[in-house]
């Protein structure tokens, strides 16, 4: 919908933009209809305080669950870390051994190539 002001009258209207639609509506009528629709969603004043209490209780409960989840995850992380910690030296020794072996082969290949070219 597109809003526009009627020439000379100063009245606001909304016009439908779809092809074949020739509906024009007074903006004041649409505003009243929209306010009426919003009033259907209004909360009774007597229910606001109990609703607030329920929302606060729900949020606190969710926060407690998140705190428990965080504690559980920290314990799990410690367990996994402790399981992996003893493996670290072996991993580094094995990796270093593989690097050295690769370097030795590379050096041996280079020496062999130098000997062939000499």
Automatic annotation (TrEMBL):
It comes from the Bacteria. This is Recombinase zinc beta ribbon domain-containing protein. It comes from Pontibacter rugosus.
């Amino acid at each position: 919908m597109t809003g526009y002001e009627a020439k000379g009258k100063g009245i606001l209207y909304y016009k439908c933009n779809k092809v074949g639609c020739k509906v024009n509506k007074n903006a004041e009528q649409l505003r009243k209809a929209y306010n009426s629709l919003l009033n259907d969603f209004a909360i009774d004043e007597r229910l606001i305080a109990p609703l607030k209490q329920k929302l606060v209780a729900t949020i606190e409960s969710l926060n407690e669950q998140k705190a428990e989840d965080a504690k559980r995850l920290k314990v799990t992380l410690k367990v996994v870390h402790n399981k992996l910690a003893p493996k670290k030296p072996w991993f580094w020794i094995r990796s270093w051994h593989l690097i050295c072996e690769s370097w030795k082969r590379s050096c041996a290949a280079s020496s062999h190539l130098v000997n062939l070219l000499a």
